[in-house]
């Protein structure tokens, strides 16, 4: 395999955020941004690195404010998005979102002290609407809390996409119950996992003290397990651009290099890109 072939970029970046500096914040925002990262900024970055398409993840710190993302999806058909919505959102609103480029909903559950009841009537209705639209539920949650959430989602029949390797307990890594639940769910054929945000696996404080150490080792071990047990047909890659909370420490170059490290075989990376195309644009 030549160096040129080895460096072919992914076709789809499956996890990024766009926002304006003055966007409203939710009451439980874990951080705030004092800068803008617009769709034009993001597309210029994709063009620089030869990545064709991007998936915009609903911005957790802005809660249900999907307005800016949706306005940009209308303009740029290279982009798709997942929206954070109230469980009472009706079918007509979701259908309009679909016309604008939304292809799923995001459950931003990380850092929550109490999780919703995903078997409640309102969530059952929401998940059925998601299923009827052939969307997916995009989940961000710490790995130890994942198994019961994943069980409820599987019961609903929706497609599930899990963020950031499933964010396992770093002390347990591949032995975390969340990781084991992911592998079991993947076998049933309705779950996908993102190879993304490896630098987040230890949290910002630990990453500052050992940025090239434990977090990357954990991410590499998780990637190896996922490739061996799930295969590229159930995996996606995302940059997590613009690296909120890690600005000026993580770059797009770094994200691409880590993808090559996690999946050294160019053919495997190509198959992961095909998975993304089929799931998000098929």
Describe this structure in words.
With 282 residues, this protein is an alpha/beta fold. The chain is 41% helix and 14% strand. It has an eight-stranded parallel β-sheet, sandwiched between helices. Helix 5 links the parallel strand 4 (102-108) and strand 5 (136-140). Helix 6 packs parallel to helix 7. The longest helix is centred in the C-terminal third of the chain and has 16 residues, at 214-229. The protein is globular and about 45 Å long. It starts with a helix and ends with a helix. The model is unreliable at 204-212 (pLDDT under 50).
Fraction of residues in H or I helices = 40-55%
Major sheet, described briefly? 8 strands, parallel
Number of strands: 8
**What is the residue-mean pLDDT, rounded to a whole number?**
92
Query: Over all CA atoms, what is the radius of gyration?
Result: 18 Å
Hey, roughly how much beta strand do the residues contain? 5-15%
What overall geometry do the principal axes of the alpha carbons give? Answer: globular
Q: What is the count of helical runs?
A: 11
Ends: how far apart? Answer: 29 Å
Spans of at least 5 consecutive residues with low confidence: 204-212
Helices and strands: which structural class?
alpha/beta
Please state how the strands of the largest beta sheet are arranged side by side. Answer: 1-2-3-4-5-6-7-8
Q: Give me the strand/helix succession.
A: HEHEHEHEHEHEHEHHEHH
